[in-house]
Known about the structure:
Blueprint: E1 2-7, H1 27-48, E2 52-56, H2 68-82, E3 87-90, E4 110-112, E5 119-123, E6 128-132, E7 156-162, H3 179-183, E8 189-193, E9 199-202, E10 206-209, E11 225-232, E12 235-242, E13 247-254, H4 261-278, E14 284-291, E15 293-294, H5 297-302, H6 304-319, E16 323-330, E17 333-334, H7 335-342, H8 346-358, H9 361-378, H10 393-412
Parallel strand pairs: 1-2, 2-3, 3-4, 6-7, 7-8, 8-10, 13-14, 14-16, 15-17
Antiparallel strand pairs: 1-11, 5-6, 9-10, 11-12
Helix pairs in contact: 1-2, 4-6, 7-8, 8-10
The chain binds manganese (II) ion (MN).
Manganese (II) ion binds near residues 57, 94 and 162.
Amino acid sequence: MFKFVHCADLHLDSPLRGLSNKEDAPEDQIRSATRKALLNLVDLCIEEGVNFLVIAGDVYDGEWQDYSTGLFFNSCMAKLSDRDIPVYLISGNHDAASNISRRLVLPQNVIQFSVDAPETYVIDDLGVALHGQGFKHREVRENLALSYPPAVPGYFNIGVLHTSADGREGHETYAPCRVEDLVEKGYDYWALGHIHKREVLHENPYVLFSGNLQGRHIRETGEKGCTLVTVDGGRVTLEHRPVDVLRWHECLVDLSDAHTDDDFTSLVSEAMDDVTAKNAGYPLALRIRLVGTTQLHGRLREDMEKYHNEVRNAAAMVAQDLIWIEKVKFDTRPWANRSQEVGGDALAHLLKSIDAAAKDPDFLNQFFAQMKSVQQKLGSYIKSMDATRLNSVEDVLSLLDDAKEILITRSTDGRLGE
Length: 418
Ligand SMILES: [Mn+2]
């Protein structure tokens, strides 16, 4: 029996993107998260007494800002060295040999695969053979897996590869390969890196992306970590183990049944309660997406700043310092759409004719001319009426818009007859 951990895409000290204009962002917490996740990974390896660690590329996000990034990684590896845990490492597109000019000697327990050709390392006392090749340049477009060596007979063979596999949305196509290419090698396990969302591509043999250790922005949501692999006789069991220290999450809040500000707050709080319960104790970076065909639509649109702050207010009540609101997205729809969808009723017809009128230049010109002549005939009598602000055809359009708004508002609160 032996155990190992498969991880990938550490992106240590990855720079913060898109947070500069968010003054309330917990920058330090986010900035330090990739390092803390690596410390958790090291602790996990030691606690589980794993026989070795496999890192499938992208330890670094790119060129180090300074040497502290490399020093930190090496200090973590040294902790594993103290426990006689070897580390098998390949470079990925982000930390390809040509991308990083600063360099430090690696601790002796870290074995880095060549970037020129596939290499094989064997651990004889465990009967394990590891095959791998790192990225020489950022853009590796060829199928690296094809030139990996055949399986070593009688050994547990592990392929270590940084790849986009058969293509994944949001990830560059590097070292592409088909799952069948990997399966046909006859290995027992493929430790893949590059895709940040955990995904098992094949079972028996297992081919999988462990996902990244720590989410870095709103496109890397949910629990992040590594895969603990136990091999007992011929049996391979996997366990996903979280090591992240801060989680990104998008909360959908359906406001269809919300009529008042209190309804708004309680629905938003409910959604946040749910996420905090599922991620007990974790700091959360939340994006709140407000959806639904709702009576509140108009009010939300009129005062987004207020409602953004109502969300922050609710967050503070749900979990004081644990929730940071990354963004509030206003994706609700007005009730008027609902009656338009229903069709056939008087309001829908009326709204449709207004829309048609607004697109008809002949109508707009005639209407404008008529109103002008009415204005001239009535002179000072109409000063207090809306018609006085009709100075161009553009004004007719805004008048039609206002008419629609009034119809919609009155229909939703039952004052259509007024
Ligand atoms: Mn990558």
